[in-house]
Amino acid sequence: MVVNLERSRPITTFKGRRVDDVVKCRPQEELDRVEAVVLVMSKSSYSAIKEVCGDQVQVIDRFHMVKQAADALDSVLRSVQKQLDSEEAKAFEKLRKRWLKLPNQLDIDKLIARADWRRRFPELREVIDWVQDLRKWFERKDEKPA
Predict the structure, then answer these.
(1) Whole-angstrom Cα distance, residue 86 to residue 103?
(2) pLDDT tens digits for 72-112?
(3) pLDDT, tens only, 3-58
(4) What is the C-alpha to C-alpha distance for residues 116 and 128, in angstroms, rounded to an integer?
(5) To which H or E segment does residue 104 belong?
(6) Cα–Cα distance, 62 to 49 (Å, whole number)
(7) Is 22 exposed, middle or buried (0-12, 13-18, 19+ CB in 10 A)?
(8) Strand 57-60 and strand 9-12: pairing?
(9) CB-side exposure of 31: number of CA atoms within 13 Å?
(10) Which helix H or strand E contains 38, and what residues bound it?
(11) Cα 117 vs. chain centroid, distance in angstroms?
(12) 146 pLDDT exceeds 60?
């Protein structure tokens, strides 16, 4: 998506992820004036935009940022779960939603339990902190949206 920064509105969206799709979407004189491009996290999209628009600001869309965070969390959760005995692994599997919540959204018992898991598995602590930081960043109140 090509965005008009002054009006904070999209100018156009691309119908595909190849260079030809980007070139055909708008006249070249307009593409030469592009200041920012919002794109999905795809190598082909990135390559096409870079080839057609050069080094203008490229912004990854929120959906794909959050998806990447959730995928990273799930990957670490699977890794931790493999280290547990079967009974503990079953209990651990039910905790996914808890990892996504901010500390102020948990009662004291759940907060203590989460702290115990974080202490036992540093990789879990790291990814939870990263997901929480990303979430806080998106929820911040500011003149400009995240």
Answers:
(1) 28
(2) 888 999 999 999 999 999 888 878 778 878 888 889 998 89
(3) 455 655 655 666 666 666 666 666 777 777 777 777 766 777 777 777 777 776 56
(4) 13
(5) none
(6) 18
(7) buried
(8) unpaired
(9) 19
(10) strand 36-39
(11) 24
(12) no
> What are the backbone dihedrals phi and psi of residue 54, each rounded to the nearest 5 degrees, phi first?
80, -140
| DSSP 8-state class, residue 82 | H
- In the structure encoding, which two tokens stand for residue 111, read together? 């907060």
The length of the chain is: 146
Identity of the amino acid at 106: L
What's the token pair of residue 33? Answer: 């004036």
Q: Is 135 exposed, middle or buried (0-12, 13-18, 19+ CB in 10 A)?
A: middle
In the sheet with 57-60, reading across from the earlier edge strand, the strands are 9-12, 2-4, 36-39, 57-60
Q: What share of the chain is helix, strand, coil (3-state, %, to 5)?
A: 60, 10, 30
**140 CB contacts (<8 Å, ≥6 apart)?**
146
- Strand 57-60 relative to strand 36-39: parallel, antiparallel, unpaired? parallel
Largest CA distance in the chain: 63
Separation CA 65–CA 146 (nearest Å)? 11
